[in-house]
Amino acid sequence: MDSTAEKITELQGYKLHVIATEKYKTNTFVWRMKAPLTKEDVTKRALLPHVLQSSSAKHTSTTALRSYLDELYGATLYVDLAKKGEYHVMSVSLEIANEKFLSDPAPLLKKGFELLSEILTNPNASGNAFDRDTVEKEKRVLKSRIQSVFDDKMRYSSVRLLEEMCKDEPYALQVNGEASDVDAITPENLYEYYQKAFSEDEMDLYVIGDVKEEEVKQLAGQLLQFENRTPKKIQTEKSAPRSNVNEVKEVQDVKQGKLNIGYRTNIVYGDPDYFALQVFNGVFGGFSHSKLFINVREKASLAYYAASRLESHKGLMLVMSGIDLKNYDQAVGIIHEQMDAMKKGDFTDQELEQTKAVIQNQIMETVDTARGLTEILYHNVVADTTISLDTWMNEMNKVTKEEITAVAEKIQLDTIYFLTGTEAGK
Hints:
Blueprint: E1 6-11, E2 14-20, E3 26-36, H1 42-54, H2 62-71, E4 76-84, E5 87-97, H3 108-121, H4 132-151, H5 153-165, H6 179-182, H7 187-200, E6 202-209, H8 213-223, E7 246-251, E8 257-264, H9 274-286, H10 291-299, E9 303-311, E10 316-323, H11 328-344, H12 349-366, H13 370-383, H14 389-397, H15 401-410, E11 412-420
Parallel strand pairs: 2-6, 7-11
Antiparallel strand pairs: 1-2, 3-5, 3-6, 4-5, 8-10, 8-11, 9-10
């Protein structure tokens, strides 16, 4: 197990995380910014990283920026948005060759830092406004990104479940914002928001690769400096349990029903029983050997797919399944039966061991890429914890049957959402 040591340094306005490892042939920079999810900012935040990666003051068009990346031995630049609990996280990632593996001794680590600094601090803007054409182009793309969720019924039903389940909570907001708010964004108000985000967000830079910590610290300190800040923390309120289950049926022109069920786990990343919850989810619905897959899909042939996943920082477990419209009651019944079985400890030692092995493999596969490793390490920033990868593995392996049934007792059914077709009930 490569328990690559993460060295964390406080720099001006952000934390630097250096993971020096010979595992990767490239050096990866991942810049992350997190702020509380709010309705007024979510759409601007969804647009901002795409505007930043589109061009910069030095490379004033996407073509110019891409051709510069090609000059850097085919470096790649991409941005991403995520919801982590009630936080909205923007990421800018840059992957660049390590000069050690090239015959040309170009100082690529330094060039990588310079480019990242250019993207973040020297955007394509003038007079307190972003370049108008860039903003308009990215607004069109953002609208189609939001629309694409509606067109993909599997994703749409997941989004709708969360909207119904977390109605009065920031978590109901979509990661890409609201289509109705896109038009109101201007080059001026987006630039104003950019300045606000860079002076208020909690910011972290991960540098992963065969690098020297001192050199990385020196370059980061020299090329990336921001105002110091105290990032806003959210007090995640444990939601009061519903007195009765919220059941929502929505009719659209669909041939296959989408049955999505939301549970409150009342456990978040960093809680002592989080590892038992992970194993619970694996036995219940996380994998192809899980109860949901075998009983709902294989044995009863009721579903085209059936699985569950955790929202680790929000304390939710979501079940997703695709079923024939007429099988609603039966599918809901069998899913409830699997949950009852978990509460009773009705699963074998073999299921338990197999699940632990699969989770372990999944984590190992994730940390095989620098981006995956960042994803796992970043849980600590969001949850304000310091759980190492080795601790995670060890704690999960120690989980007992009793701990899983104790976790099951905490899980509460909250919302059943069914996207059904006009043919239903005929």
